[in-house]
Amino acid sequence: MISVAPFIVFLVGALLACFARGRVRDAIVVATPIVGALNLWALDGSAPTIITLFGRELILVEVDRLSMLFGWLFHLAAFLALIYGLHRPNKLEQVTCLLYAASTMGAIFAGDLLTLFMFWEGLGLTSVFLVLARGTRRSEKAAIRYLLMQIASGMLLLCGIVVLIGQGRSLDMAPMELEGLAAWLILLSLGIKAGFPLLHNWITDTYPEATVTGTVIMSALTTKTAIYVLARLFPGTEILIYIGVSMTLFPIFYAVIEDDLRRVLSYSVINQLGFMVTGIGIGTNLAINGAVSHAFAHVVYKSLLFMSMGAVLHRTGRIGASELGGLYRTMPRTTVMCIIGASSISAFPLFSGFVSKAMVMSAALQSGHEWVWLALLFASAGVLHHAGIKIPFCAFFGHDSGLRPKEAPRPMLIAMAIASFSCIFIGIFPGVLYGMLPYEVTYQPYTFEHVVTQLQLLLFAALCFVVLRLTRLEPAERPGVNLDVEWFYRYMLPRIARALRATLSRARLASGAAAEQILGAGIGLVTRLHGPRGVLARDPLGSYALIVIIALFAVVLVFELALGSR
Amino acid sequence: MSDPAPPGEPRKRYVFDDPRNVRRVLWTFYAACALVFGAEFFMHRHVEHPWEGLFGFYALFGFGAYALLVILAEGLRLLVARRPDYYDD
Amino acid sequence: MNLLAHLPALQIVVPLVAAPICAVLFNPRIAQPFAVLVSLVTFAISVGLLNEVLAEGEIVYHMGGWEPPWGIAYVIDPLNALLLCLVSGMAAIVMPAVRLGIGAETTERSRRLFLSLALLALTGMLGIVITGDAFNLYVFLEISSLSSYALIATGNDRRAAPAAFNYLIQGTVGATFILIGIGLLYMMTGTLNMADLAVRIVDLRHTAPIQAALAFILVGAAVKAALFPAHAWMPNAYTYAPSMVSAFFGATATKVGAYIMIRFIFTVFGAEWVFGDMMIGWILVPLGIAAAFAGSLVAIWQTDLKRMLAYSSVAQVGYISAAIGLGNRDGLIAAIVHVFNHGLMKGALFMVMACVILRLGRADITSFRGLGRRMPVTMGCFVVAGLSMIGVPLTVGFVSKWYLVLGAIEAGVWPVAVLVIMSSLLSVIYIGRVIEVAYFAPAPDDARIQEAPALLLVPTLLLTVLCITFGIATDTTVGVAAYAVQFLLGGLP
Predict the structure, then answer these.
(1) Which residues of B touch A393 (CB under 8 A)?
(2) Which chain A residue has its CA at the smallest distance from C240's CA?
(3) Which of A129, A253, C13, C388 could serve as C397's disulfide partner, Cβ 3.0–4.6 Å?
(4) Is the ipTM of this complex over 0.90?
């Protein structure tokens, strides 16, 4: 069967969309992932595609069960987001989505690290336009911060690759030991994209600032691409277990106190990534299966949740929990589908989260990480709080905000309906998903006791919510900024710079002070040497240049003769 | 709950505007809680870990974890919450 | 007579003979196409030579049938074949546009002389590159230098003459250094043929004259290559020269200096001695890194963009020097590839300046305001060539920096790799600031600026496309460079 590299379909789609307009462009945009899926179907089981670039052999496409699974997943995610985006077709957004999807397709089918790197950079460079497309001052600044983080990730990956080449090691996408500079550089690079603690910040900083559609597709692709690469390169790396557990834990607290519901979901993204990273860290067949299937389920229900919140933002122009409420009255369909997404992420039986998350937990227990298991259980209760209850309750129920927006536009409803259907379908027929996993699945999610214990956990946690609510102990939602890692570069760095400048001018005033001389000399040196009237930029006098040449010669000569007479 | 309906239109009442409906939902919920807790007595447990075997472990853990989460988050709020225009950009 | 067998001689003879013909041709309207034809023929010969070298290995040609050590030999290996292509290729690209590129800047009267000088400069550079005889190299060096002083002085700006004079003084000092070095070599070995020199030097390496000769030649070549801190002649010369001269020399002149350095170090003196005992790496690498930073930093503050490009060249020569100084295989590949690649991208950028100067009469940063919409193709070329200067993947700039970083790692000097990447960030600033002005600053209202004429635009586009082509199809350049390295390093790894 004829097939091409999956990213080419999206590139062509983007190119066509560039030159089309109106309905034709919309048709192209929606058709692209469908054509892509057909191509993917034809691609299954084909031999690697190898090209030669930079004098190196690059494995452009390598197909196995893992990359196929993510291939299907990302086609589905792109399809959902592109349909969803039809509510207000925007050329920049649509083309960017296609290019962004192309980067992802390239990355997951890359057979070596260098190919991965090229698409890895593509992910950041394309998706940044989805943030810029929002068109506000805030989003512009967030986009710049986002781009810097993404490029930093790419640079770290490149440095790691260079070290590998320098050591003459292979660039295959094969598991590597976490030893030596190269492995750590690559892990750090993946860590940025996968939202490791302290590197997670771009997720919560950027996603709430992107366009309604942009957030949906960004939340689905970038971080999960990182999870995919982690699963390829670092399965069974112990440190990932602890990184993953901390990722499941710290965001749930932030999610409780955060007011912006899309930011709540962004923290939730990190929490869910934590489950996957933990699974990869445990590294048993069950754990990897769990991590991968959780990634699959997560993409669908998190898209669904972001889509429902996007619909709310689109219709009301607001997204703060404290300014929303009671929207079920006029947006009943969105409400129902948001609840389906919330049930899936909370892992209620018959919903997709139930069949995937439990594999990771079970693997933690089987491999003897009981404290990890306990922490994940705690995090599960946390998920119920922010994603299962807070999101639907604050937006659609709770106090009546008096807002009576219209129901979400039809394209949004269609996309959400497909996602809802997928959530329930996976939840009821887990065998379909299990059949695609990289290892054979013996895990059986629907046992009487698993269903009962899971329901006990969730319902009693919800009971706690009801009790707190009825006794009015549940803390109220309040708008505001919650300090996170970005404090260092959004608050501290500018202030340090300002303080330095102030010190400098003070020092200049207090003439004769030693501080002035040192600071002034240090900072002034560059300008004096290189500035427009600097020494190095001045029109050189012939004599000056000659002296320099002769001095250079003298140095070289003395150097040579000294070495020669050894 | 006040419903600021546009003038001239009859004030529309929605399903949860009636407190009886809210009460119905809550009682259904309590019943479900009691049901799954009661299932503990009929369940033949294959525990993968001793803690799991403790009576009512999942139910109590769920309840406790949720309460702890809210309390700790309130503590975090004291530490990190700032006014909305905190970052001056 | 088999013409093909005499390609090496024709390479020099064709432009050399054409130069005076151009000068005495009565009508500049005939002289122009004639010069274009000559440069095209010269380029064709270069390509032919490169093909032959790649197919059959080193070509040794004895001028006039005289065997060395009495006669002059032309020795063509992949390194100089590649450089011949670069030099004559640039000439062929630039020459058709000379009518426009100097039209606004020089008087009608000097046009024929200008073409003749350009052909002489071309002859000189080709000669330097092709010859296998040390003294012959010096002669060609003088031919190219003298004609380039005159060419630079033809600039309309009244500061062109002092700039050319400055260049003359410094260039002569540099050439003299090289001459003294060659003299010392001749004194000690009794031969001028590079191959013979290489053999005889081996036993004389401990002597002070040979060591001094190395110092003389290195510094002389450094002046010609405008290696920091001996770069002082370049910024003014390139700023005030006519646009076409800047484009041609910007792409080739410093590269020929770098070639002299590579040729003497690797072919004549022997790499293992120069880098092992003499530790030249300790001079070339620090100087190169210093050049990369000094040049880029100065470039950031420049308002005249031709001057900015000149300082950027200082930085780029720094990379070449550092790459040579690494003294290993990847470093040398980086140096050779960067000589070629930088020629392409700097040529493209100077051609962009020529387009802008033709339309606006100047090339300072304020005149670039809003130019992205007024001259879309020209500025598009600037963006692509600029990205290449920064070293973005899929452009030629990336390829050479990639090998440079590899070479630094192979040599175990991590800091160099880091510094190279850091200094690349500086080029983001000076290129980025032009792009910002061109695309984001509002255009002045009154200006009615059109796109440059096709005669200038086509060569600019061609060079820009090559920047991408050789950035993707790296087999050609890297392949030739790797082949050249085999010759230069002999059996060494």
Answers:
(1) none
(2) A539
(3) C388
(4) no
